[in-house]
Write a structure and sequence with these properties.
The complex is a heterodimer of chains A (79) and B (516). With 79 residues, chain A is mainly alpha-helical. Helix content of chain A is 70%, strand content 0%. Chain A starts with a helix and ends in a 9-residue tail after the last helix.
Amino acid sequence: MKAQNIFNRIIIFYKDGFRQMTIGWTLWAIVLIKLFIMFAILKVFFFPNFLNSKGKTEQEKAAYVREQMIENEVKNDNR
Amino acid sequence: MELLNTSLVEWSRAQFALTAAYHWLFVPLTLGLGLIMCIFETIYVKTGKEEWKRATKFWMTIFGINFAIGVATGLILEFEFGTNWSNYSWLVGDIFGAPLAIEGILAFFMEATFLSLMFFGWKKLSRGGHLAATWLTVIGATISAFWILTANAWMQFPAGAHLVAETQRMEMTNFWDVLSPVAVNKFFHTVVSSWVLGAVFVLGISSWFLLKKRNVEFALKSIKIGSIVGLVAIVLTILTGHTSAREVAAKQPMKLAAMEGLYDGKTNAKLVGFGILNPSKKYDNTEDPFIFKIDVPIPGFLSWIATYDSNTFIPGINDVIKGGHKQLLDGTDALSFAEKRERGLAANEALQKINILYNQKDTIAAQALWNEQVQAGNTQYFGYSHIEQEKDMIPNVPLVFYAFHIMVILGMLFAALFIVALIMKDRLKKAKWMQIIALICLPLAFVCSQMGWVVTEVGRFPWAIHEVLPLNAAVSKLATGSVVTTFFVFLVLFTALLIAELTIMLKQIRKGPQEN
């Protein structure tokens, strides 16, 4: 019963807090739009995990990185 | 079109730098303004005067805007690790896992919990309870910074870990070694310099109110608190800057040489106050590095800063390449680039054989061969096998030199600003010149903070992880075009966020502290 009261009080605390927000609504909108762009667009379409395309298991990924460490073809040609 | 022909490594670096630089506009203001906001509320709780509550709420709103716009922008850096810097990401996974997990679980949830109590709890919590929530929000943000900065410091000085051939991961051998003096100094220097930024921010905004001749009492109170915090913070910044410089001298001598434009090492080395570098100077010619320079008029000051002994030899860029000097780290003779590369190539050749053995499932023979290389002391120079020429060891000297000196000069300017503000007290409301200077200092505080990171990050070139993994081996083999695309996507996204921040913040500042 006591636990339920605390739960209710937390809900009411947040409900009142959100209701009384003024500038907070704009900020929440920006946060949500930003998170959508980051996780639904950037992460999905532009930032896949590169090593996942090189191996499925940890051993395969380790082997790929080992190959890279042995002979790296990417050279910094702008020095 | 020459810009678009720049290499994959350079575009990947540019993209990371862009993201980190934008992210770092928000973080120091959160840390700095957060502390000042806490002090305002503490005074309110102590005195019970409503004017302090109004002031607290005003700065808290500005803090909230900055926090909301900046939150999660750092996650993009983690996206880039996995996509653009996959070799690096794989190598450091074991090391970064622990600090970043602690950061995520403890600090982030702490921040998130107490942030809502802070903003929603004014009428629901007792004064003391609300004050505790405010302090814990800022402490949570600072703890977050601690773990991120520990991870960054480890890249500058990778202690407490060794490279395992089979997994190709740096595996942690001692957690406490990861929390090295480099990490501790970096944390304190970064946090206290963020307090300086917060203080300059408060002085700048408050001076705007004075210029507009409104909310004068609030502005004067804010300037007083900001100046006291700023002065204490700038002293701490100088002290931690000094101890950080000692760490750099011992562990990253090339970075220190670049910071000072020092090509040939010296005993009794002087600290350069400011100078103009000679653009024709190369490491392998005999031209003077400077067109003009002003040294700090204390004999052997750079040597003293590095070791507390003004007679110490400070290696220059050419000494780091040629070796032979006594290393400040442990007093041993420094190896030349050629010797380090030879050892790195030996380790790399062994890894080629080891790779074949692993492919043949002969892990015992592979491990034995790697252990031989560890015993021979070759594996610690493995990274040098990816650096072909000695000139590739040298960071962008002008960028590091100017960034370092601009940072120091601006720091001195801010110290003077705080002192003058404290001396002038109420006379500030009529001193338009001082109000204008304080307002001009506001963007300069962000420039100063960015310059610090330029020194740290550009100065450690060519390493992603110092002496273990150079940038050209750390980068993923992506199409350069895709990196260019995401660079401009981020440029647009972050610029939009910055415009949003400035627009909302300026609107709120114009409103000023509210009665209710």
